[in-house]
Amino acid sequence: MSPRRSYDQYCSAARALDLVGDRWTLLIVRELLAGPRRYTDLHADLPGVSTDVLASRLKDMEQAGLATRRRLSPPGAAFVYELTGRGRELLPVLQALSAWGAPELGERRPTDAVRAHWFALPLLRSLREAGAGEALVEVRLEEGEFHLRVGAQQGPVHGEGPAPGEADARLVMDAGTCEALARGEVSLADAVRAGRVTVTGEGTLAKALQEA
Amino acid sequence: MSPRRSYDQYCSAARALDLVGDRWTLLIVRELLAGPRRYTDLHADLPGVSTDVLASRLKDMEQAGLATRRRLSPPGAAFVYELTGRGRELLPVLQALSAWGAPELGERRPTDAVRAHWFALPLLRSLREAGAGEALVEVRLEEGEFHLRVGAQQGPVHGEGPAPGEADARLVMDAGTCEALARGEVSLADAVRAGRVTVTGEGTLAKALQEA
DNA sequence: CGGCATCCGTGACGATACTG
DNA sequence: CAGTATCGTCACGGATGCCG
Lengths: 212, 212
Description:
Two copies of one chain form a homodimer. Chain A has ten helices and eight strands. Chain A has helices at residues 12-20, 25-32, 39-44, 51-63, 85-88, 91-101, 120-129, 175-183, 188-193, 204-210; strands at residues 37-38, 67-71, 79-83, 135-140, 145-150, 158-160, 169-173, 197-200. In chain A, the strands form two sheets. In chain A, strands 6-5-4-7-8 form a five-stranded mixed sheet. In chain A, strands 1-3-2 form a three-stranded antiparallel sheet. Chain A is globular, with a radius of gyration of 18 Å. In chain A, 42% of the residues are buried. The model of chain A has no long low-confidence stretch (mean pLDDT 94). The first copy, chain A, binds a DNA duplex through α3 and α4.
């Protein structure tokens, strides 16, 4: 438990970086945007992080009030880590980073790891630009299925598997299309028009996307 | 020249952090938002950074296309570092970090360094929330004077000294008021109403702020 | 004097092994 | 499963030196 290193600058950006500027911290937040996660799952979806660094960051984030550690009720009484409200407020930071980093994605490198839910932030942006307000959207990729809560003010931003309940829209696309959306090369409307994204559902969002 | 360490994840946020996630990098960007700066000036306004790390980061940023190194025309033919367009696009990232970090500011700690222009990002936010569109604003603090280009699409976001040309508004306030604005405790409109900020100028922005 | 490069001590990081 | 322990390596911060 080191006396955490600080920039010691009376500047709000520097203060933010004091808390989330360490290596891996913002990527752990990215993972926790999917809701409560176990240590092992975090470790699996953060390839490259060492076990001690992950444990250390989680403790730091707990102390900083960004995350909490909670024991699930039995059976399966494992510990899960969950974002606090303050932690969830980092969503705009991750959105800004994700938007800025989109042009850097390029082609997938052989050394790159991929997870389906890493496309959640880019797709949130695509959906927002397509005019989606508050909506529950189901996404089906080859790598897996997940759902997005566009415009949700609290709770998980996305989650694994199909939507819990009636989705406002359901998107099916191939890997290349999803990557092109993530890189910002095409808009969601364009991809739908080109038949690269299949939209189903009865909600207003689904209708709007289909008629784009 | 190390083969820069990467997260090796096909995720736009991770790619962004590959480029700007290293210690000091985003604070260097914050400094360069003030326009071209010399190495020595950067070093003076980034207390705590070691000389080799600053030089190394500047090289990395040059290689990444975030900044350029340019020789000023004589006399005073020094080198200056300047953000590229791509580098300036990091403004939303810094704005998001600054907004998130505002509640963490608290009271000034004895170990905290301060520079007048570190209040530029918080004040930009205050001005945006007060309804300012594109405007040139002059700010006078006890620690120094600087000017802001609210809503500017290119060029420096702020600069030292009085505004070059006719300012749309001029704000004078004391240190405590500026810090309260930065912490997000009060809105600019409230501060003006309370007489803690003096607004002068003839432009529509000045009128709007005075009548708030 | 501005603009770094070099050296050095300390701490953070990454990989692996191990434990309750 | 959920971490802790150990260890080699590298990055960081501070000081100093060099060179135009």
